[in-house]
Amino acid sequence: MLSFIFNEAMRDLRRAGRVGVSAILLIALSLTALGGFWLLSLNLGRAIDQWGDRVRVIVYLKDEPPAARLEDLMQRIEGVGGIQRLRYVSKAEALRALKRSLGSQADVADQLPRNPLPASVEVTPDAAIATPEGTRALVGRLVALPEVEEVQGGSQWVDGLAQFRRLFQGMGLVVGAVLALAAILTVTTATTLVLHLRRDEMEIMRLVGATESVIRWPRLLQGMAQGLVAAIVALAALEIAYALAVPRLEPLLPVTIGLERVTFLSPLQALALIATGTMLGAMGGLLARGRAQA
Amino acid sequence: MIRLQHVSKVFGAGPSRVSALSGISFHVAKGEFVVLTGASGAGKTTLLRMLYRAETPSEGDIEVAGFDVTELRRSEIPRLRRSIGIVFQDAKLLAGRTVFENVAFVLRVLGTPRRDITPKAFAALKAVGLSARAQALPHQLSQGEAQRASLARAIVKSPGLLLADEPTGNLDEDMAGEILGLVKEIWSRGTTVLFATHQARLVPLLKRRTLRLEGGRLVKDEG
Fold first, then answer.
1. How confident is the model at residue A258 (pLDDT cuts 50, 70, 90)?
2. Which domain CATH number covers B63?
3. Structural domain for B202, as ranges
4. Given Cys at both, which of A34, A65, A278, B193 links A227, Cβ 3.0 to 4.6 Å?
5. Domains in chain B, number
6. Looking at the complex, does the CB of residue A200 fall below 8 Å from at least one CB of chain B?
7. Burial of A37 (C-beta count, 10 Å sphere; 0-12/13-18/19+)
8. Are A97 and A242 in a shared domain?
9. Predicted local confidence at residue A223, as pLDDT
10. Domain of A222?
11. A25-35 burial, b if ≥16 CB within 10 A, otherwise e?
């Protein structure tokens, strides 16, 4: 019985001819777009995570603490909670950093009568609180310390990141839903056409006593097979596009989005794309049955 | 094998209401050969369609091969149809498949073990004298051959009941005689047969019990 159902499904696929091939190509196109979006999303997500890691809060101190009190101060700052790392930057070190950044014009700094830069503490928040609300709360706790003059950084930058991520995820959902719907409708149309071609066979099947599942399964398998082939074509297209684009893009990435390299879908993610294609095809096959019966 | 009690069938409602069958009652015993006759439009096809539950009666009870057809649930219809072989006026052969594949198709649909399919399909083809045309496609067959292939397809699953709906309607006299002979042979092996025909000249040839429908009513049951 299984071989009958499988053979009938393959026969239907062959019979669908150009319509079947068009359906496969359209699903492949939809899945390529979906997969491409996913690939971009994954890599941008990695970039966003890395940016998140780089979020710094700078705590400017009123006075440079004497060496004997430095450890106590650092402990009290760490004690406000939500801090992953902190690093003390003395007035001298801040000046050296300024000179480094001025490069050939570093001697401008030497003209200063005294070092105007304050001592500071660079705070890296915990990943768990690298959110707009978490960072704002941390800044509030740090400002409350009596030795602190001013606290900068963090909140606005994290706000921007979070908004960008939300926008990106929203776009992904909308584009993904539209493309998935297009893929389902394509399979539905192709399978409906095959059902019309096969109506004589289905009539005979019903007359001789075939169960509905025997009549239904080949349609389902046909849709699944179309989705599977389309997903494999889509994966191959993505792999080729990746191989062609990455050598050109990678040199630009560190200076734009801060990524060292672009990664492809993992084997598990590739399998998920194949499963999505197969599932979309199956849904198309099932919907076609309803449409043909209607 | 078949029992109908006060069966009526009405199509449509209001002004477009048509009574196709009215107050039909009869019984066909297991192993019997019964001819169902009447002019075109008398209700023969509607009656046969109700026997394999392609239509439901508007009133009355139908029992076929132990199934209460009137109360049969949708999921049980395949079981009823497995016990019935059906042939039609047009052979309804599947165009893209050979004669052998048309016959084997039934067995494959019903989940017959693969090793049994070829011998059973060839046995059915042999029974209707069509073994030599097993690899022919439907469009390469004469009308008589196509009807014999249709008979082979109906009997390949060894049904207890054969419903023949005008199987000789499109055939000339010689071919019709051949088909009649084959149906009688199938009946002689124990299959119950209900043979519908509008061709009055065939009825005396069959020399069997005859049910006559006129305007949807059973007007004669004799023989």
1. low
2. 3.40.50.300
3. 2-10+22-222
4. A278
5. 1
6. yes
7. middle
8. no
9. 81
10. 2-52+159-293
11. ebbbbbbbbbb
For testing the chain B interface, which of A1, A10, A208 should be mutated: the one with the most B CBs within 10 Å?
A208
Do A183 and A216 lie in one domain? The reply is: yes
Nearest to A209 among B75, B78, B114 (CB): B78
**Band of the pLDDT at A67, cuts 50, 70, 90?**
confident
Question: Which residues of chain A lie closer than 8 angstroms to B106, CB-CB?
Answer: 204, 208
**pTM score, whole prediction:** 0.66
pLDDT score at A1: 66
Which among B81, B96, B114 is the nearest to A208, CB-wise? Answer: B81
CA dist., res. B186 & res. A190, Å (int): 43
Task: Return the structure tokens found at A123.
Answer: 């705070």
Quickly count helices (H) and strands (E) in chain B: 7, 10
ipTM attached to this prediction: 0.86
Residues in a beta bridge with B10: B19
Is some CB atom of chain B closer than 8 A to the CB atom of A208?
Answer: yes
Contact map slice: A 15-44 vs B, CB within 8 A: 15
Name chain A contacts of B113, Cβ cutoff 8 Å: none
